[in-house]
Design a protein that fits this description.
This protein is of the alpha+beta class. The protein has helices at 72-85, 102-121, 134-152, 157-176, 198-220, 228-238, 242-245, 296-303, 309-313, 322-325, and strands at 256-262, 267-274, 277-281, 290-295, 317-320.
Length: 336
């Protein structure tokens, strides 16, 4: 089992409500039905750098699945409460995303929910451009995002809120309908996967819904979703990108790296060098070559390009091999 660090939250910081590590597991008897479609965050035939599979001889216990489909309705309900509470001036407040204000983020949440339902549930793909690399994929997704924000930020806040409510409900229903363990049509590209199970694609989408809502909350100073129930699975999903992030980092077989997100929502993740690949493991095997500690308040911002490197360095602590431990600051767990 993963170990967790429990720290007192600094005065003035949002506190994580204690929830067990199993809180995001689907309740017994609620396994979803199979669905053969997935969201368009990759393209058929796209070849992106991937992480080789460890050999059976060296493969250690992998991390368990992250089941989040049942959390969508609750998170979406909090989004609707948040949007309805905004004052007129709040909609134009700047977020940590340099190009987006609060209204832009809300427009993006509407756009991606509608696209997700259209593509995933209905199998409707409006365009399939030639994509030959992760750079091409990022450019395509960024263009779609920009176009969607441009269109939907033209709407009044009231119209935007009502459309978001319908869209996120349909998206949540779609993710609840998927067989969590079936293969998703598209891999989670930022984790270096050409093929991913549906649970990983759904968890990836959950991180999108959470971190964009958190951007709004941070901008208008209205905390509420940095709880263990929501934030721990987001962190767990983000950190599944560690093997891909370290794919070009050399180390001798058996090297162990420890990553701690400090705070009540955080935990400890272990990255192990097995043969010629890195892999995440549940329990440590030997002494760590480096230990990196990241405060929970900035962890999500590091992995979503919401904080600059120097500001992050001032708050991150590393012991042991600093070059190994600090490489994580370059990890990006979104398509960007």
């Amino acid at each position: 089992m993963l170990k967790f660090l429990l720290h007192l939250t600094p005065l003035g910081a949002e506190s994580c409500r204690a929830v067990s590590a199993e809180s995001y597991a689907v309740p017994p008897g609620q396994r979803a039905q199979s669905s053969s479609r997935g969201l368009l965050f990759g393209e058929p035939g796209v070849r992106i750098p991937s992480v080789p599979e460890p050999s059976l001889k060296t493969k250690l216990n992998p991390l368990p699945p992250i089941l989040t489909a049942h959390l969508f309705p609750k998170l979406d309900g909090m989004l609707m409460e948040l949007l309805r509470s905004l004052a007129p001036e709040d909609w134009e407040r700047q977020t940590v995303s340099p190009k987006w204000k609060v209204k832009d983020v809300a427009a993006h949440l509407l756009d991606t929910a509608l696209r997700g339902v259209s593509i995933g549930r209905d199998g409707y793909v409006a365009e399939s451009p030639a994509i030959n690399s992760s750079v091409d994929l990022g450019a395509f997704i960024n263009r779609l995002n920009s176009e969607g924000v441009t269109v939907y930020r033209r709407l009044s806040p009231l119209v935007l809120i009502r459309l978001v409510e319908v869209a996120v409900k349909s998206l949540a229903e779609y993710h609840a309908s998927r067989d969590a363990y079936a293969t998703a049509p598209y891999g989670v590209s930022w984790a270096g996967e050409e093929k991913s199970p549906n649970w990983f694609d759904t968890a990836r989408e959950f991180t999108e819904r959470w971190h964009h809502q958190q951007q709004i909350r941070l901008a208008v100073n209205k905390p509420g979703i940095m709880t263990r129930e929501f934030y721990y699975p987001v962190l767990d999903c983000f950190l599944r990108a560690l093997p891909f992030t370290y794919r070009n980092v050399s180390a001798k077989t058996g090297t162990l790296l420890r990553f701690t997100v400090s705070g009540e929502c955080g935990g400890i993740w272990y990255l192990y060098r097995a043969d010629e690949v890195w892999q995440l493991i549940e329990a440590p095997t030997g002494e760590a070559a480096s230990e990196t500690t990241i405060p929970q308040e900035i962890a999500w911002r590091i992995f979503t390009k919401g904080i600059d490197r120097q500001s992050a360095l001032a708050q991150v602590k590393v012991s042991g091999d600093a070059s190994l431990g600090l490489h994580v600051l370059g990890m990006v767990s979104i398509v960007a």
